[in-house]
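Retro notes, item 3 of 5
We never archived the inputs for the S-adenosyl-L-homocysteine complex last cycle. Fixing that now. Sequence and ligand:
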Amino acid sequence: MKPKKSLGQNFLNNEKILDLIIEKGNINKDDIILEIGPGTGNLTKKIINKKPHKLIVIEKDNNLSENLYKKFNKNIKIINEDILNCIDKFKFDRPVKVFGNLPYNISTKILASFIKIDNLSKFFSYFIFIFQKEVAERIIANYNTKDYGRLSILSSWKLNTSKIIDISPKEFYPIPKVMSSLIILKPKKKIQYLNKPRNLEYVTNIFFSQRRKMIKKPMKQLFNDYEVIAKQLKINLNLRPQNLTVENYLEICKLYESLN
Ligand code: SAH
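Structure as it came back at the time:
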C-alpha cells in the first residue's frame, strides 16, 4: 500500500524508539490507552503486549483501518474516523494515556483541541506525541526565547511539557523532509480559569502577529485604558511580546474577558 501524503503518513520504523515510547508511557493493566493515527500498527502491537485494560485507536485511513482490524481486532477498539471529529468522546472514569505519531499537517490542531477540553487533568493523564521538531520547540519554549509564541502560551496554560528525544527523518518511511521530536505533555492540576479558551488565542494572536513591535500597540488595541492596565499588571509597555510570561498573558486575557 502506498503511503498517503495527504494524511501525513510517515511510519516510524525504529524499534528502539518504539520501545522508548512504551517505556515512557509506563502502561499498567488498569490503563485506558488512546492511540491517534496507528497507521500500520508498529506502536499498537507494543501497546497490546503491555496488556492495558482497554486500547482505542483512531485511524482516518480506511485501508489501514481494515488492516488493523484484521491484525488486532480481538484486542482493540478501532475507530475509523477523523480524530478532529471525535476528540470529545474519550472521557472515561479514569485519566486516559494518549499516544500518537501525529500527522504533521494537523498536529497543532489536534493539540489545541485537547487543550480546550474542560477538566483536562481529570480525563487525561498524559500525552506522548511525536511532532515535527520545529513545532515541538514552539510548544515547549519558555518566554524570552525565539520559539516562544502563541503555541507555547496555549500549551503552558494547561500542560507541563518536556522533550524526550529528537528523531532523525531516516527513522520514518517514507523519509520526511524535517526532524521530529518525541515529547511528553502532562495536564496541570491547577490552571487559570478562562471563560473561553478562544479568547487566549485571540489575545495572543494580536500580540504575536506583531512580534517585533513593542507591546504598547497590541495593548492599545485591546484596552482603552491600556496605560492604567499595564500599571495594574506591572508590565512595561516597551517590552516585546516574547518578553511577557504565560502568567502575564493569562492575566491580560482574564482582564479582556471581564471587560468584553
Ligand atoms: N503511528 C504510525 C503512523 C503515523 S503517520 C507510526 O508511527 O508508524 C500518521 C497516521 O495518522 C497515519 O496512519 C494517518 O493515516 C493517520 N491520520 C492522518 N490524519 C488523521 C486524522 N485526521 N484522524 C486520524 N488519523 C489520521
